[in-house]
Amino acid sequence: MSDDIVVDHLTKQYKKLRAVDDLSFSVRSSRVTGFLGPNGAGKTTTLRMLLGLVTPTAGNATIGGQKYTELPDPIRHVGAVLEASSAHRGRTGRNHLRMICRAAGLPDSRADEVLALVGLTPAANRKFKGFSLGMKQRLGIAAAMLGDPRVLILDEPANGLDPEGIHWMRDLLKAFAAEGRTVLVSSHLLGEMQLLADDVVIVAAGKLIRQGPVDEVLGSMGAAQVKVRTPQPAELTTALASLDGVTVAPQADGSLLISGTGAAAVGHAAFTASVELHELASERGDLEQVFLQLTAGMAGIR
Amino acid sequence: MRLVNAELFKLRSTSLWWIMGIVLLPLYAASVLANWAQYANTNAGDVSDPDQAEAVRAALEPINVATSMYTSGQYFGILILLLLAAIIVTSEFFHLTATTTFLVTPRRESVILAKFGAAVLVGVLLWLLTTVLNLIFVPPIMSNLDLGSQLGEPAVWRAIGLNLLAFVLWAVLGVGLGVLIRSQLAATLLLGIVYVVGTPAVGLIFFLLTRYVADWFDKLQVLFPPNASQLMISGTDLPGNPPRWVGAVVLIGYAVITGVIGTLITKRRDIS
Ligand SMILES: Nc1ncnc2c1ncn2[C@@H]1O[C@H](COP(=O)(O)OP(=O)(O)OP(=O)(O)O)[C@@H](O)[C@H]1O
Ligand SMILES: [Mg+2]
After folding, report:
1. Which long-range contacts (CB under 8 A, 24 or more apart) does B213-222 make?
2. What stretches pass through the bilayer (chain B) (predicted)?
3. Could you give the CA distance from residue A237 to residue A250 in angstroms, rounded to a whole number?
4. CA distance B180 to B96
5. I need a surface site. Which of A33, A40, A82, B197 has the fewest CB within 10 A?
6. CA B66 – CA B78 distance, rounded (Å)
7. Per residue in A269-291, is it b (16+ CB within 10 Å) or e — as a string?
8. Global pTM?
């Protein structure tokens, strides 16, 4: 059975607000898919509809071809981390996990296994109210791992994690995808996403803006850039002006950022114009730039 | 069944249950002592109104004293049970654990059913606790009142059995009301206050209605759930009261209505 996630013309209308508007995208297994969008874009609402917690106004969403609510033992198939702070304050971390084990028919010992997996063993008997934000986040991830699921869905899991924690999570999710499983993760941390995600789904104002492999999305936006350092910036700019669709942006540090063409073309133009180069480097596009470009005018709280 | 087990585990793994237990024990002791004092000091001859004197005389019959004494703790036991049952539901929303719960079990009616089951088991447990304590402490009190233990009387055992039914029905009612009210604070305050203050307040309202509007209002007092459960466990049919089965019917009616409405609401509600 495939573990792809398919979101099909999903719509959620709150009283006045269309939080999710005819949204369709798909998420493939064996890859990490980043789910990006400005605040209020409808990411959380979409994930909650996917997980059967919120009823869509129209459309539907399936995981491996089935609705979440129709999966026989859902947490053995799908693991989800939605809010970091969703445990009873007076219950210990271990008991929070055991409670899930009991309801799902998993052995209590799974609780200790996942606690070890997320590095929470020392805090297992501490009450949830004594957890730091990062510990709560880890407990959420532990809960998602209980059923050893084929599909992981995470809503801003990096929130509150320290750099080491983020690194740990990145490795965890990549390893997860490498085993052929499906990972859908929403986040605002675009730099992190660029390191983590293979595919991205970008939404704004409840609508799909772009989906595809990270490199393709960056490429399509002409996001690849060439960085040049030269003692003759004016001459180089003139030489490049003859090329179609090329823009040159002087940077504060004295270098030039050139988009719309490749390093080879820039080098050739410099050579033919006898411009001296001290540095010539292709830079991978910046997801943050592209994201801001794509969602320009659509961000903002609705 | 594994969901009921999980619900009981949820209850056991926080401090709520033993706090409630600690609250219940002194309240139980107080109600036994209060009952005792009341029966030791009341005398039908003191009451002037002949109708009331008749009612008091009936209440002082050994069998009626016995049924009341052997179900001591019902009032507070059910109060605690009502709050626990409501909290079993409201804490899921208060602590945002509803997300986790419904992710594990997307069939929400199963979750609510399990909560009904867990609350009923808690009710049975509380009934067992108060009944065992009553069977230990009440016989000496009965002999102090010169009434004998009365344990040979089937009516006593029937009252104890009906007391169990009352606990079960209130457990269902508590869960249903918890779903309907949902806010933890509102649910505990509202249920606690209505339960405690409600009986005299309702008594007063019905007294006024009966007096100034129509006599038949008096018969409607049983529609207030605490009155219904009181009536259900009384030893014999007391003069001036509807028959016992009416109390049972009223409670069952409330339990079914809140249970069904609560389940339907939970099924449709967005969890966010
Ligand atoms: N229960 C609700 N009732 C009314 N409006 C809601 C409800 N839940 C969400 N919304 C609105 O729907 C929109 C989308 O919210 P959502 O939480 O899905 O955004 P998001 O993409 O997750 O944002 P963020 O990045 O800030 O987490 C917001 O404008 C929000 O105010
Ligand atoms: Mg969100």
Report:
1. B222/B246, B222/B247, B222/B250
2. 16-37, 75-104, 116-137, 157-181, 188-209, 245-266
3. 9
4. 17
5. B197
6. 20
7. bbeeeebeeeebeeeebbbeebb
8. 0.84
Sign of CA dihedral B229, B234, B240, B243: positive
Structural domain including B84 reads: 2-268
Distance from CA of A11 to the nearest CA of B (A): 14
pLDDT tens-digit map of A176-231: 999 999 999 998 888 888 889 999 999 999 999 989 998 888 777 665 678 889 99
Residue A179: CATH number of its domain: 3.40.50.300
Q: Which residues contact A244 (CB under 8 A, 6 or more apart)?
A: A260
| CA separation for the pair A274, A290 (Å, rounded) | 33
A192 and A107 within one domain: yes
Distance A19 CA to ligand 1 centre (A): 6
Q: Residue A63 pairs with which residues in a beta bridge?
A: A5, A66
Same domain, A147 and A251: no
The Cα–Cα gap between A31 and A148 comes to 17
pLDDT at A19 over 60: yes
Q: Enter the tokens of residue A290.
A: 């592209």
Containing structural domain, residue A78: 5-213
> Which stretches of A202-246 are DSSP H helices?
214-220, 233-241
Q: Is A248 helix (H, G, I), strand (E, B) or coil?
A: strand
CB contact at 8 A, B11 and B80: no
Identify each DSSP E strand in chain A by its residue range.
5-13, 18-27, 32-36, 58-63, 78-81, 151-155, 182-186, 199-204, 207-213, 225-229, 247-250, 256-259, 279-283
- In tens, the pLDDT along A62-72 reads 999 999 999 98
Report the DSSP pairing between strands A32-36 and A199-204: parallel
Residue A218 lies in a domain: no
pLDDT one-digit tens code per residue, B178-206: 988 888 999 999 998 888 887 778 778 87
Report the chain B residue with the minimal C-alpha distance to residue A68.
B106
Q: How many domains does chain A have?
A: 2
Residues contacting A215, CB < 8 A, separation 6+:
none
ipTM of the complex: 0.84
Answer whether residue A173 is part of any domain: yes
Name the nearest CA neighbour of B250 among B226, B217, B215: B226
Residues A133 and A29 in one domain: yes
Structure tokens at B140: 């000496």
Of A157, A178, A213, the residue that ends a domain is A213
> Whose structure tokens read 């809140």?
B258
- Contacts with B182 (C-beta within 8 Å, 6 or more apart), sequence order: B89, B90, B93
Interface of B with A (CB under 8 A): 2-3, 5-6, 9-10, 13-16, 91, 95-97, 99-107, 268, 270-272
